[in-house]
Amino acid sequence: MVDTFGLEFNLDPEASLKEMQRVCKKDGHILLMNWGKSYFAVRNYYDAYLLPFELHQQGYFNNRDWEEITRKLKLQVVQQERKQNGSLYFQILKNTK
């Protein structure tokens, strides 16, 4: 399964990831690329400031912690990279069902 920049617009990304996990075969991979929380507090404050405007204009959640979301769902992280001050997440997850 592949999702690029789609879960940021979803009201419940955990439910969407659970559905991906459900339909993905055992030991299959889920590839994600999303914008989220940064390494830097200043960037996170700025994103928190922009959140109401981006939600109203685009329906976009700019400050989700994708590492925490995937950890809650117990998806095994095969590979993960963060770019652009830690705001751009590349994740390859293994479905262990």
Give the helices and strands, then pairings.
Elements: E1 2-4, H1 13-23, E2 29-35, H2 41-58, H3 66-72, E3 76-83, E4 88-94
Parallel strand pairs: 1-2
Antiparallel strand pairs: 2-4, 3-4
Assigned CATH class: Alpha Beta
CATH architecture designation = 3-Layer(aba) Sandwich
> What is the percentage of strand-forming residues?
25-35%
Going by CATH, the homologous superfamily would be: Vaccinia Virus protein VP39
> From N to C, what is the helix and strand string?
EHEHHEE
Mean pLDDT: 91
Largest sheet: 4 strands, mixed
Number of domains: 1
Instruction: Work out the helicity level.
Output: 25-40%
Using brief descriptors, characterize the structure shown:
37% helix, 97 residues, single chain, alpha+beta, 3 helices, Rossmann fold, globular
Describe this structure in words.
By secondary structure, this protein is of the alpha+beta class. Helices cover 37% and strands 26% of the residues. The model has no long low-confidence stretch (mean pLDDT 91). A hairpin with a 4-residue loop joins strand 3 and strand 4. Strands 1-2-4-3 form a four-stranded mixed sheet, covered by helices on one side. The chain is globular. The chain is built from three helices and four strands; from the N terminus they run βαβααββ. It has one domain: Vaccinia Virus protein VP39 (Rossmann fold), CATH 3.40.50.150.
